[in-house]
Amino acid sequence: MINDKGNLTAKAHKILHGLGGLDNLVEGQIDNCATRLRIQVIDIESVDENVLRRQGALGFIKLPDNQVQVVFFDVHAITEALRTVITAELA
């Protein structure tokens, strides 16, 4: 796992890249549960599991309708950082 020394913004940028970039995300479809980041993507083949694993992803679940669930330890903080990065890129 790549250690960003607590820099969740840097980690969120790398996770966004691993998900295929901002253009690959379905708007408004980012959520989480206790352990999983839940995202809907446009092209599931653009999701790079190796990039996500280097950011601490422990596992993946691919569901119908291009739904992806990525297991992280600190998913709540990661989800908030990812939302912040996406909002900044959309501005």
Could you describe the largest sheet, including whether it forms a barrel? 4 strands, antiparallel
Shape category: globular
User: Per DSSP, what share of the residues sits in E-state strands of 2 or more residues?
Assistant: 25-35%
How are strands sequenced across the largest beta sheet? 1-2-4-3
Q: What separation lies between the terminal Cα atoms?
A: 30 Å
Helical run tally: 3
Helix-residue proportion: 25-40%
- Given the helix and strand composition, which structural class is it? alpha+beta
Mean pLDDT, to the nearest integer, reads 92
Report what the structure shows.
By secondary structure, the protein is α+β, with helices and mostly antiparallel strands. It has helices at 8-18, 49-54, 75-90, and strands at 25-32, 36-41, 59-63, 67-71. Strands 1-2-4-3 form a 4-stranded antiparallel beta sheet. β1 (25-32) and β2 (36-41) form a beta hairpin. α1 packs across α3. The model has no long low-confidence stretch (mean pLDDT 92).
What can be said about this structure in brief?
By secondary structure, the chain is α+β, with helices and mostly antiparallel strands.
Question: What is the secondary structure topology, with strand pairs?
Answer:
Elements: H1 8-18, E1 25-32, E2 36-41, H2 49-54, E3 59-63, E4 67-71, H3 75-90
Antiparallel strand pairs: 1-2, 2-4, 3-4
Helix pairs in contact: 1-3
